[in-house]
Amino acid sequence: MATADMTDKIKMSSLPLLQHSQTYGLPKTHFFSYLQIRSFVQKTFISFPDKPTKTQYDCILELNSDRKGLISQVYVFISNINPHSTAHLKRAWDTDLGVDLTEDQWDSILDLIHTSSTSALHGLIQMKVVHRVHLTNARLAKIYPNIEPLCPRCRGQPADLIQTSRHILPSKAYVVIAFTTLLARCLILFKWKQQTPPSFSKWIQDIFFFLKLEKIKYTLKGSAQTFDKVWRPFLDFYDSLQEPLDAY
User: Fold this and answer.
1) Which of 35, 122, 140, 175 is placed for a possible disulfide with 117 were both Cys, Cβ 3.0 to 4.6 Å?
2) Phi-psi region of 172 (alpha: psi -120 to 50; beta: other; left: phi over 0)
3) Exposure of 213 by Cβ count < 10 A (0-12 exposed, 13-18 middle, 19+ buried)?
4) Model-level pTM?
5) What's the pLDDT score for residue 106?
6) Is the pLDDT of residue 104 over 80?
């Protein structure tokens, strides 16, 4: 029973017991319990005997139990009663990334956790990353003294989230990712006000165009073999596509 509904049933003034019993179907044996409840409501709600302001709990009690998505609605109501602040997470990422994320950017990051993919697993992984759930060695070392806090790969920096992620991929892969995503960002900026968005094929064409310049740079430095080691996996992958783009 919602608070407002209960108040409706007990907001009478001092009425005769017989009238209570007839109006509300109240047995004589329950009358003392009624007076206790009435006294509690009178002391708790300033608006008594009028209806108190509807609360989130009243909204939950009024939900249709047969309605689809009931659990999700109850979860939203409960979350709104005492919303969980993520300000400490934002500050931690600001420090790690060396940026100052705006509130709109941070809200967008939180929204993308469950909207960027239809996979529940992807959403779970992204939630753990954004909420910094993963136990790095630097974090575990504060709990267990026998754990080494330094990165096990470089042995020079604390094994925090950024340092650990930085060394997950080989350095050659980072060169490829940094180079190709840079070209993608440039292409987006060149096209961002145009009606037609940039195409994937245009991005691939730009990659191969600038790869020619990269190869010249490596060759002039006497590092032609290094260029092949860095870019060979990408070139082999491109050649393995069933319908390769005409980018060469």
Assistant:
1) 122
2) alpha
3) exposed
4) 0.47
5) 92
6) yes
